[in-house]
User: What shape does this take?
Amino acid sequence: IAGITQAPTSQILAAGRRMTLRCTQDMRHNAMYWYRQDLGLGLRLIHYSNTAGTTGKGEVPDGYSVSRANTDDFPLTLASAVPSQTSVYFCASSESDSSGANVLTFGAGSRLTVL
Amino acid sequence: GQNIDQPTEMTATEGAIVQINCTYQTSGFNGLFWYQQHAGEAPTFLSYNVLDGLEEKGRFSSFLSRSKGYSYLLLKELQMKDSASYLCAVKDSNYQLIWGAGTKLIIKP
Assistant: This one.
């Protein structure tokens, strides 16, 4: 089934630890995104990638890093986790980065708790 | 600043009609999206409006007025499975998506 796979589904992490959330898509989409979703707030863009080999900062990039070595994979790394990074993280992809109704396809999400 | 406003929560009865409003103030406009998100799941695409007017897709319709910075999602013949959050998002002049906080829709029998 074509789509986006995220791992882990859920994780409890001690503050100060390093954590990588994995995201893989099999739709050959050019653009990929990482969002965080917190209660009472809209989805907030952390980082994005318009195509393999390029990345960009979103609205809330501090404390996070990404890489896009190939089309399919877009991992998100928390170098030193803090409690404010407790959230649900969604990876998404789209055919293109901007024009038209580029519909986002989302992964199932990764629920991260930082203690 | 950029802002998307939608009601936090709405309640409706199975079989009825409900309208979920979304107002926006963004730097530029390149389209408005509605997504559905069931509790604990990923958002899924419902509709896209870029021109003024009504877009109908089965039981769901979405309306846009660019001059008023306003959209609504209309759900007809409500079913229990329509209980979900509905997210409004606007693509600004930089083609970045600005998301509302979502409207939680509760359907009662």
Q: What stands out?
A: The radius of gyration of chain B is 13 Å.
